[in-house]
Amino acid sequence: MKCVLHWFASWSDPQRERFLHDLVAKAVPGKLQPLLEGLEQLSVSGADRPPRIFDCQLRLWDQWFRSWAEEERNEFVRQLETSEPDFVAKFYQAVAATAAFQQGI
Q1: Pfam families, per this entry (predicted)?
Q2: In total, how many domains does the chain have?
Q3: What is the DSSP secondary-structure string of 70-103?
Q4: Which of these, 55, 57, 69, 94, has the minimum number of CB atoms within 10 Å of its CB?
Q5: Long-range contacts, stretch 17-20, CB < 8 angstroms, 24+ apart
Q6: Does residue 42 lie within any of the structural domains?
C-alpha cells in the first residue's frame, strides 16, 4: 500500500485519471469489468517499445490489489483519502454513477 501511495503522489493528472478508472473497475465488478479490461488491452503504442514505469506500476498495483483481503482494500482507500481527499471524492462519485448506470440496465 505504501508503494502505491508513494507512486500516486508523483503521478500526473492523466495517470491519476487512468488509476481512477482502474480503481472504479475493481470496486464495481460485473458487467463493467470485462469492458474496461478490453479497453485496457487496446494500445496505440508500438509493440517494440518497452513499457513505461507507470505501466509497470499499474501491473504491480493490480497484482497486489488482487491479493488483498477486502479489509486491506478498504484500508487502502482510507489511506488514500487521508492524503488525497479530492481524488477519493471523485472515486466515490464514479462508483455511485456506475451503480446508477447498472441499475438502469
Answers
A1: DUF4508
A2: 1
A3: HHHHHHHHHHHHHH-HHHHHHHHHHHHHHHHHHH
A4: 69
A5: 18/58, 19/58, 19/61, 20/87, 20/90, 20/91, 20/94
A6: no
Contact indicator for 95, 27 with CB cutoff of 8 Å = yes
Sign of the alpha-carbon dihedral angle for 92, 60, 84, 37:
negative
Selection from 43, 60, 50, 54 nearest residue 15 by Cα: 54
C-beta of residue 80 within 8 angstroms of C-beta of residue 87: yes
Residue 72 maps to a domain = yes
Residue 23, Cβ density class (10 Å: 0-12 exposed, 13-18 middle, ≥19 buried): buried
pTM of the model: 0.76
Q: What is the DSSP letter of 45?
A: S
Is residue 36 a part of any domain in this protein?
no
